[in-house]
Amino acid sequence: MIENRSVLTCDTAEYEELLEAMRLAAQTADKLIAEITPPLSGERYLTTKQVMTHFHISRRTLQNYRDKGIVPYTAIGGTLLYPESKINEVLERNYYKPSM
Questions:
Q1: Could you tell me the CA-to-CA distances from 79 to 14, 53, 85, 99 in Å, in that order?
Q2: pTM score over 0.90
Q3: What is the rounded distance in angstroms from the CA atom of residue 85 to the CA atom of residue 97?
Q4: pLDDT of residue 8
Q5: 3-state secondary structure of 53
Q6: 3-state DSSP assignment of residue 56
Q7: Which helix (H) or strand (E) holds 82?
Q8: Cα angle: 82, vertex 91, 89; to 5 degrees
Q9: Rounded to whole angstroms, how far apart are CA atoms 57 and 74?
Q10: What is the mean pLDDT of each successive set of 10 residues along the chain, which is 100 residues long?
């Protein structure tokens, strides 16, 4: 008995669906690669944009935090990097539990 098989060509709707699924997978992978930074000597470093998002602050406020020594950072050329563990320590130090 011969099975009825359909052929996938560039003119079929299934082909377009496959292409769209592949585009979406590539976009998702690109987004993950951009957002997830590998550790350096066991430490993850965040970019200025990531810290601004993490703290919900402006670039100028982050500059003030750097100037006052509130947020530690490393400057390599024109790029500023912030150790994630130290950022989390700043958050924990400044966390206030609501009184009940």
A1: 45, 17, 19, 40
A2: no
A3: 21
A4: 74
A5: helix
A6: coil
A7: strand 79-83
A8: 65
A9: 19
A10: 68 86 89 71 87 91 95 91 91 83
